[in-house]
Write a structure and sequence with these properties.
By secondary structure, the protein is an alpha+beta fold. The protein contains 23 helices and 30 strands. Helix 2 packs across helix 7.
Length: 754
């Protein structure tokens, strides 16, 4: 039996090998085909996944637009011709030398003639108007409706669009909705780029063959065979490399796009996505953005020759850039016009007329995003105040408190101020807000105001130094144990901290100044008197008040907080000072006024009314001390520069002069300025020598009215000697008039001598 088994085994193996050799070749092709089919299915599923992640059928359909505040003009309104023209230019108005049509204006000798478009505000529909605005100096004298001949008491002009917002991708580009696309643009685009767009299914063999023959005839590549769908696929999903794999991916993605989306959706996406222009290192995509930048007009306002130029640029955005290659761009535009004539889109007469026109572009391209820091804050506050579901809606209209004229004045004043110091590495951040309602009017986050990078006004957390002292002064006065006339001593102090280390703070000037009133210590910003008072209860009160306005950063409070070692952004400092400037009433500082949907319905948000946090009478005492800072203290430069005006503020300087701060307010505007370096090295500028000077340069351009203290019957006003802290005569040179709670009026009288 063992022999039989040993003999039969090799025979069986031999038979199997013979059977394997006799299997038909189709057996292997079958399994290879199934493997290829499975791989292809996985490949298609992957491409479909890529499309789903990047392309939503309505992603480009209706943009959410960000508007500046409405421009409301009336007789007596403080502005001039140059300021109004600046804002009109920032909007979609275009300057002309003839009678203006809708969306145009004409400068006159002492006024402006303009023709505004209809605009739907939240509360009413503002009709189209043709008006003449007359000026007397820096004030509007008269607004005349040229159709009715009547004088208007109020003219509301459409607010400027300052950006576009998309929760999905965060883009700021301007986008076109279907109803905003002129039919002529579609006709020109299809005539030049894809005549069979509505007939093919993503790939056009006819176009490929026609392009091949044209290239053979020319002896070089002069025409492409890609459809608009293929171009969209390449722009959205693929790299510019020329390879067979990339072309295959492009073809399959184009087919999938055609299967999943309508022709209209694909066309709208293409018009909003196509690369048209390069500005420095920023690529400009979409006809809407390119039109605004090159012509300062919306696409639906463009003449035929300008539409032809934009379509011509699709073929080579770098080669046909009108700013760098105007003659090549003109030839390309005329070639497009010739194609249009051949397709009977325009007549021969129109062709000759349009071909002889200049390009009509601006002399210099504006920044892609003129106000990046402000729009950055808009996005952050939208995400904080509205639900993702609300923001996912299309066609939102975001109305902000942004004031283009104040922003321009801020930028000009900032540039003047920074030029004082000749420090190229010196950085800055500024916020201007209306402290009565919390509206943020203007904002910069970089010394290069249109730089879209790190937003220092929001993100940079820096020690605030003596900017903490107004809130510390409030805390001390609130306790009832101190008044502005309390006698304090500027003497050394040694504090043992929890880790055993000894903290020995010093004054900025490294000197001791003896005894004085609390008011005098505040306006001179001496550190030691406040540390001495702070360690005896003031520190706890200060931390409680910081907690009230949500600015207490640490659970453990160290004595160094008394000298402003806590870090804050410019935005947070502005919020702290808003409460002080507004008599103790807290209003969240914000960019957003209202958000409406596509049907003009207002989106609901959690309303935050003005909230009373601090006592008015105590806050008024702090305000009076801050006026003293601007008149006789560390910010007395303001009194020297603005002799007739009353201002309130506080300087701030951190260790080794690494940060220079000034926060101050007039009758309505609160402005905070920070100067420093990103690497935190010393700038050699105190708050008085640095930020204060920039603040003054900015406010000089902005213009302001004097700050006025609110009358409060619970306060009594008395003249005191700020050095000896006693009552004195009004006629004394050193006397100052200060407010006191009636149970804290000083009783001691002193002579005029300091």
């Amino acid at each position: 039996m063992a022999k039989r088994k040993s003999v039969s085994k090799p025979r069986k193996t031999q038979r199997r090998s013979k059977q394997a050799r006799n299997k038909p070749p189709g057996h292997y092709f079958k399994w290879a085909g199934l493997a290829l089919l499975a791989a292809f299915a996985i490949y298609i599923v992957y491409l479909n996944f890529v499309i789903s992640n990047r392309f939503d059928g309505e992603t480009w359909a209706i943009p959410s637009r960000v508007f500046a505040r409405p421009l409301e003009l009336y007789p007596g309104f403080q502005t001039n011709v140059d300021e109004l023209i600046y804002e009109l230019d920032l909007s979609t108005f275009k300057s002309v030398n003839i009678k203006p049509q809708a969306g145009q204006y004409r400068p006159l000798e002492n006024g402006i003639e303009l023709h505004s478009r209809q605009f739907k505000f939240i509360d009413e529909l503002e009709p189209e108007r043709h008006v003449q605005i007359s000026f007397t100096g820096d004030k509007i004298e008269q607004i005349v409706d040229l159709q009715s001949g009547q004088n208007l008491q109020l003219l509301r002009l459409p607010p400027a669009i300052i950006g576009s917002y998309h929760p999905e991708n965060g883009e700021d580009r301007l986008l076109l909705s279907e109803k905003e696309i002129p039919q002529q643009l579609i006709d020109i685009l299809l005539a030049v780029e894809d005549r069979r767009f509505y007939q093919h299914f993503g790939i056009s063999p006819v176009s490929i063959f026609r392009a091949l023959m044209a290239n053979i005839d020319a002896g070089k590549t002069v025409q492409g065979g890609s459809t608009i769908t293929q171009q969209l696929a390449k722009n959205l999903f693929l790299t510019p490399e020329r390879s067979l794999v990339r072309k295959l991916n492009e073809a399959f993605i184009a087919l999938l796009l055609e299967i999943r989306f309508s022709k209209s959706t694909i066309l709208i996406a293409y018009l909003n996505e196509v690369f048209l222009l390069q500005q420095n290192n920023i690529s400009i995509h979409g006809f809407a953005q390119a039109s605004r930048m090159l012509f300062k007009q919306n696409v639906d306002q463009l003449s035929t020759d300008k539409l032809a130029m934009l379509v011509g640029m699709v073929n080579g955005p770098t080669r046909y850039n009108p700013m760098t290659h105007p003659e090549q761009t003109r030839k390309r535009r005329n070639l497009v016009l010739s194609i249009m004539q051949g397709q009977a889109i325009i007549s021969e007469t129109e062709f000759k007329e349009f071909a002889n026109k200049p390009l009509g572009t601006v002399d210099r391209l504006p920044a892609v995003n003129r106000f990046p820091a402000y729009l950055d804050l808009v996005k952050r506050q939208l995400a904080s105040n509205y639900s993702p579901h609300q923001l996912a809606g299309r066609g939102l209209r975001i109305f902000t408190s942004f004031d283009p004229v104040i922003q321009q004045q801020l930028e000009q004043g900032l540039q003047t101020g920074l030029n004082r110091f000749q420090q190229p590495q010196l950085q800055s951040a500024v916020i201007i807000a209306d402290y009565l309602n919390g509206d943020i009017k203007a904002l910069t986050g970089d010394r290069k105001v249109d730089f879209p990078g790190f937003n220092r006004a929001i993100m940079a957390q820096r020690p605030i130094g003596s900017l903490i002292k107004p809130l510390l002064l409030y805390s001390l006065l609130e306790s009832g144990n101190y008044s502005l006339a309390t006698l304090v001593e500027d003497k050394p102090v040694r504090i043992q901290q929890s880790n055993g280390e000894i903290w020995e703070p010093r004054n900025y000037d490294r000197k001791l100044h003896g005894k004085m009133s609390l008011y005098q210590a505040f306006i001179k910003s001496y550190n030691l008197p406040f540390v001495n008072l702070g360690v005896n209860g003031g520190l706890e009160l200060l931390s409680n008040n910081l907690q009230e306005i949500h600015l207490l950063k640490h659970d453990i409070v160290y004595p160094s907080l008394l000298l402003g070692t806590t870090v804050m952004s410019v935005y947070e400092v502005a919020q702290m000072y808003q409460v002080i400037a507004n008599n103790g009433y807290f209003s969240p500082i914000t960019t957003i006024r209202q958000v409406t949907d596509a049907d003009n319905g207002v989106l609901n948000t959690n309303p935050v009314d003005s909230l009373k946090l601090f006592d008015q009478d105590t806050t008024i005492q702090v305000q009076r001390a801050m006026i003293g800072v601007a008149e006789q203290g560390t910010a007395r430069y303001l009194k020297q520069r603005f002799r007739q005006e009353i201002l309130a503020g506080k300087t701030g300087t951190t260790n080794d002069a690494r940060d220079s701060w000034f926060s101050g307010f007039s009758n309505q505007l609160l402005t905070v300025v920070w100067l420093g370096r990103d690497d935190n090295t010393p700038v050699g500028l105190s708050g008085s020598a640095g930020a204060l000077r920039v603040w003054a340069d900015i406010m000089h351009r902005v213009g302001f009215k004097s700050f006025k203290l609110t009358g409060d019957n619970s306060l009594a006003w008395r003249h005191i000697n700020p050095f000896s802290a006693g009552l004195t005569r009004e006629s004394c040179d050193s006397s100052v008039l200060l407010p006191f709670k009636k149970n804290q009026i000083p009783s001691r009288r002193v002579s005029c001598a300091p």
